């Protein structure tokens, strides 16, 4: 059975980086697929990979991660609006999907949609 | 605000420092994208010797490898740098994949353990780089989160980046797709294995650093 856990941005917003990454890994290590509102900072993504590597064991093989984020390449006005929204709301825009590598075979980004392929050979699920 | 200020100060210092010493040029990318093949191409071209071993099995490079004092020339331009070949960055490492590639269970587990350490080291070393060449396999989907994370982390650190779309000798390669994925960066299509378009790579490197 596949378990999805939704994390609203408000739940991680005020957590320090270390705590935020620990929370993500603890969910993923419970064999759950985490769908988080918003995204991590670039440095946090790097830190998440580093922390993942430190946690790799016989049972935990790592993670699959993908972020869908609205590209702001249309007009200058829209771009500015996006930047302003980010300043006011933080990294709330977009969606981050993180799951255990043992469950998720691959996450394809297209780039505006995410295709999540589970490890079960017969089952392919699209999101 | 403090972050922005810190990055600005770091950049000013890096720019000042850059003029006084060798650059550290890092090769980054996912496993099996051809980083060590490119490193070997560069060192063979300018030093007449190879830098590291390559393999079809992922995570062949599991430690940071540095080759000091590489001087390259293009016309009147000259560039000196230390070349840093890094282990491929991945979000998952499963020793069973190495077993499937023909390694014994014992060797596969050892390789997996070393590979995880290699990824950690590669990420730690990001802060030490002056310039980075991100080597991507042009036959694969460029939108992978690892690629985006590597490039995003370099961008956040204000480190100049050149993207190499490697393996253009293969039919499936698609340099335009890599360019479309990272439009804000220079992308050079090469075959590190056969040296195809390697001159364009050196020109792009001079353009980036010079």
Structural class of chain B: alpha/beta
Largest sheet of chain A: 4 strands, mixed
CA-based shape of chain B: globular
Task: Say how many strands of chain B there are.
Answer: 6
Helicity of chain A, in percent? 25-40%
- Largest sheet, strands/sense/barrel of chain B: 6 strands, mixed
Q: Provide the structure class of chain A.
A: alpha+beta
Q: Quaternary status of these chains?
A: heterodimer
At the fourth level of CATH, the homologous superfamily of chain B is: P-loop containing nucleotide triphosphate hydrolases
CATH topology name of chain A, in short, is Methyltransferase, Cobalt-precorrin-4 Transmethylase, Domain 2
**Strand ordering within the main sheet of chain B:** 2-3-1-4-5-6
User: What fraction of residues of chain A sit in β-strands?
Assistant: 25-35%
Distance between the termini of chain A: 16 Å
Shape of chain A: globular
Number of helical regions of chain B: 7
What does this molecule look like?
The complex is a heterodimer of chains A (127) and B (210). With 127 residues, chain A is α+β, with helices and mostly antiparallel strands. Chain A has one domain: Methyltransferase, Cobalt-precorrin-4 Transmethylase, Domain 2, CATH 3.30.950. Helix content of chain A is 35%, strand content 27%. Chain A has 4 helices and 6 strands. Chain A has helices spanning 9-12, 17-28, 42-55, 76-89; strands at 3-7, 32-37, 63-68, 95-100, 104-109, 114-118. Chain A has a 4-stranded mixed β-sheet with strand order 1-2-4-3. In chain A, strands 5-6 form a two-stranded antiparallel sheet. In chain A, strand 5 (104-109) and strand 6 (114-118) form a beta hairpin. In chain A, helix 2 crosses helix 3 (42-55). Chain A starts with a strand and ends in a 9-residue tail after the last strand. The model of chain A is unreliable at 121-127 (pLDDT under 50). Chain B starts with a helix and ends with a helix. Helices cover 41% and strands 20% of the residues of chain B. Chain B has one domain (22-209): Rossmann fold (3-Layer(aba) Sandwich), CATH 3.40.50.300. Chain B contains 7 helices and 6 strands. Chain B is an alpha/beta fold and 210 residues long. In chain B, strands 2-3-1-4-5-6 form a 6-stranded mixed β-sheet, sandwiched between helices. The chains are: A alpha+beta (127), B alpha/beta (210). At the A-B interface, helix 3, strand 3 and strand 5 of A face helix 4 and helix 5 of B.
């Amino acid at each position: 059975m596949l378990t999805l856990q939704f994390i609203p941005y408000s739940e991680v917003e005020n957590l320090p980086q270390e705590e935020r990454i620990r929370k993500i890994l603890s969910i993923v290590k419970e064999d759950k697929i985490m769908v988080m509102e918003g995204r991590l900072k670039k440095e946090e993504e790097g830190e998440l990979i580093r922390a993942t590597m430190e946690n790799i064991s016989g049972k935990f093989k790592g993670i699959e991660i993908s972020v869908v984020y609205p590209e702001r390449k249309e007009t200058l006005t829209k771009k500015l609006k996006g930047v302003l929204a980010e300043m006011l709301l933080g990294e709330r825009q977009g969606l981050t999907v993180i799951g255990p590598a043992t469950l998720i075979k691959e996450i394809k980004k297209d780039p505006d949609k995410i295709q999540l392929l589970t490890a079960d050979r017969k089952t392919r699920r699209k999101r | 605000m403090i972050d922005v200020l810190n990055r600005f100060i770091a950049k000013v210092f890096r720019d000042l420092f850059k003029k006084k010493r060798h650059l550290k040029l890092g090769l980054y990318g996912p496993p099996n994208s051809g980083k060590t093949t490119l490193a070997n191409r560069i060192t063979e071209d300018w030093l007449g010797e190879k830098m590291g071993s390559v393999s079809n099995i992922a995570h062949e490079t599991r430690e940071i490898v540095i080759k000091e004092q590489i001087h390259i020339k293009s016309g009147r331009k000259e560039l000196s740098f230390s070349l840093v070949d890094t282990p491929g960055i991945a979000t998952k490492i499963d020793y069973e994949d190495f077993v499937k590639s023909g390694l014994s269970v014992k060797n596969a587990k050892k390789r997996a353990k070393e590979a995880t350490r290699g990824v950690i080291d590669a990420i730690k070393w990001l802060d030490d780089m002056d310039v980075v060449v991100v080597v991507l396999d042009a036959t694969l989907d460029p939108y992978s989160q690892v690629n985006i994370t590597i490039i995003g982390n370099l961008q956040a650190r204000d480190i100049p980046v050149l993207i190499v779309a490697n393996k253009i000798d293969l039919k499936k390669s698609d340099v335009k797709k890599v360019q479309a994925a990272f439009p804000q960066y220079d992308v050079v299509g090469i075959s590190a294995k056969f040296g195809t378009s390697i001159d364009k790579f050196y020109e792009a490197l001079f353009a980036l650093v010079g």
